[in-house]
Amino acid sequence: MRDFLTVIFIFLATTIFGNMASPYHQGTKTSTVISSKDINILSENIDIKINKEFNSAYFKIEYNISTDIEGTQIPLLFIAEKYKNGFKVWVDDLEVKTLDIPKEYTSIKDSPFDKFSESLKVADQSENIESITIHWSSGFRDVYYFNDLKYFETSLTKGEHKIRVEYSASPWVSRWGLVNKYSFDYSLAPAKFWKSFGKLNVKIDFENYSDEITTNLGETKNRVKDNKVLYSFNELPADSIKIAFTPEIKGFAKTLADINPSNLALASIIILFLFHVFILFWKKEKITTRYNLLLSLIISFVPFMVFILSYKFIASSVGEHKTVMINYYSNIENTIFYPILFIPYFFLMIIISIIIKIIIKKRKIS
């Protein structure tokens, strides 16, 4: 009986999710720079400030570089998608214009970008175009062909220079489970191909945010002050930086979530099933098909309402953080699946009723 009910609710979940949009919303995709072989990156300083709603983060990244080549050159390439309010770059505090690599360049060979050959490789010989693969901490992977990237051209003297990048980012949102899970991703993978790796400093400012935020950067090396942390590394700590926040479910909604509405629905129908069987024994021959039908209609309907109303209560508790799953599970229209449970349940109880009557008759005869 319990296995049958489990299959019913799994079918309900699968059918609902089959009509849903993707449960993952990809946010801003940015990474550390792709460096020319003429450039030494002495340090990268990443300053991230998260707003109080955790729906936007301001990135300010400074690269201290040095070069032995003098004159006009393309020192860095950028991966930047879905950023907000512009993607700005300064060289020695003078703003420069970022450009898309012209589509006419189908290879870095014999082009102004040939000094990026250490980072950009031909992955597929049939396409014969260089690319770089970025693995995001959320489990996604993107392949960027070199003419998908951004660049700037500037005149540099020999020696050290400072390049600053600023932009606003949107969070990635995972809609699996009961509450949305938010994160900001920043890939460090291109740094593996730098001519040299100096020091990496990461400062995260969530001063305006009161809930708990986690990172994948390990223990905090130095707490600047409340809600501001600073990490320092002499080598890459991970392929990407992930700053994450998961809203907390509180009160009775947390109790419901811990028990799981599916388990509540299963428990309710098992209890009502036993009650139904008890009624059949109690009433004995007096149970008619019509009476059985009425009981079956009520008992098979209750678990659907327990399932839906439990999710509806959790949804009202988490508010704007509710997932797509909760929206679908708490929809009263899901009662259209009611016949899937009612029909087999009704015929099961008819069979049990007949068996009970046979048992009672045998007892009378004996």
Explained architecture:
With 366 residues, the chain is of the alpha+beta class. The protein folds into two domains: 2-22 and 250-361, no CATH class; 32-245, Immunoglobulin-like (Sandwich). The chain contains six helices and 24 strands. The chain has helices at residues 2-18, 251-259, 261-283, 289-318, 324-329, 338-365; strands at residues 24-25, 29-31, 34-35, 39-50, 57-67, 71-73, 76-78, 80-81, 84-91, 94-96, 99-100, 121-122, 130-135, 141-145, 150-151, 154-156, 159-169, 172-174, 181-187, 197-205, 214-215, 222-225, 228-233, 240-245. It has an eight-stranded mixed β-sheet, with no helix packed on it. Strand 12 (121-122) and strand 13 form a beta hairpin. Helix 3 (261-283) runs antiparallel to helix 4 (289-318), helix 3 runs parallel beside helix 6 (338-365) and helix 4 runs antiparallel to helix 6 (338-365). The longest helix has 30 residues, at 289-318. The radius of gyration is 31 Å and the shape is elongated. Residues 1-7 and 13-20 have low confidence and may be disordered.
